[in-house]
Amino acid sequence: MEGRSEKIAALRRLAISESSLDAGTVPLGHADADAIIGGIRLGALHEVYAGNASHAGAASGFAIALALRLGRAKALFWIGTDFATLEYGALNGSGLVEFGVDPKALVLVRLAKGEDALRAAGDILACNATGAVILEVSGHLKALDLTASRRLSFAAAQRGASPTLLRLGAVPQASAAAPRWLIRSP
Questions:
Q1: Number of alpha carbons in the 13 Å side-chain half-sphere of residue 131
Q2: CA angle 179, 185, 186 (to 5 degrees)
Q3: How many Cα atoms sit within 13 Å of 157 on the Cβ side?
Q4: What is the DSSP string of 59-95?
Q5: How many Å apart are CA 141 and CA 162, to the nearest integer?
Q6: What are phi and psi of 40, to 5 degrees?
Q7: What is the dihedral of CA 160, 110, 116, 156, to 10 degrees?
Q8: 70 contacts 105 by C-beta, under 8 angstroms
Q9: Contact (CB, 8 A) for 178 and 45
Q10: pLDDT (tens digit, 9 = 90+) per residue, 126-154?
Q11: What pTM was computed for the model?
């Protein structure tokens, strides 16, 4: 069994290294995870799901950690809706600072509709000053289908910015994101 898992880990590292030659990778920061997945891709769409509503804080923290690793000291944009803020809570400034977020590099964008947030994410990804984008989406957003995720993925590859879809209160669906994370708090 040990030989088989080593082969699978080697194949994963090979697949990731071949698919990320142009975009590059950064370490996740956990030696065992990095040995298996080979790091996280720059300039790629990432997706983070909260296990359920009670795990929204853990998923948000994980999304911020990804964004800090992927942002390469450029501006970090957090885009969300008014409803998501009411449903899952607002970001805490002192908590973000303790997490390592530079307040000067953080831009918060709150919009009324999820469709507007999706459109804003696409526009922000077109800006060269963007390092990472977190698009917080609550529930099922009809406009965020496979085609929309492909557009975000393409925009990320074109500019080298790294968007993360933070899905709260949603079930996994078809997406162009790679990788996709399901986060649960202990």
A1: 17
A2: 125
A3: 13
A4: HHHHHHHHHHHHSTTSEEEEEEEHHHHHHH----HHH
A5: 21
A6: -115, 140
A7: 10
A8: no
A9: yes
A10: 888 888 999 998 888 888 888 988 998 88
A11: 0.80
